[in-house]
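haha ok so turns out i had the wrong file open the whole time. this is the CORRECT one, sorry everyone. sequence first:
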Amino acid sequence: MNSRQRIVFYVILGLIVIGFLGSAFTNPKSFIIPLLVFGLVFYLYKFPPRRYRNNHNYKNVAKIQKKQQRKKRRKHKFKVIDGNKSKNDKDDKDDEEESYPFH
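then structure:
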């Protein structure tokens, strides 16, 4: 940043601080409640309750997920159905333009 941008940045930052302090002194209730809510959310994010904590390692969770995926997969047996065409019919069609029976 050059010096002009720094000056503008600090002026705007100072005005923001003055605005927050002014609203905190004039109407502290409207300033404290959002601050408490933000603090509570931050605290719960950093220290979640025990019932929501997972004690599993990432590797153990990955192993469990792989096992579950294996169980979900089903092996399908595919059956090849032989067609009615002979090999000679196929060679004759290559010489001519392909004509489809439905057109």
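The chain is about 65% helix and 0% strand.
again sry for the mixup
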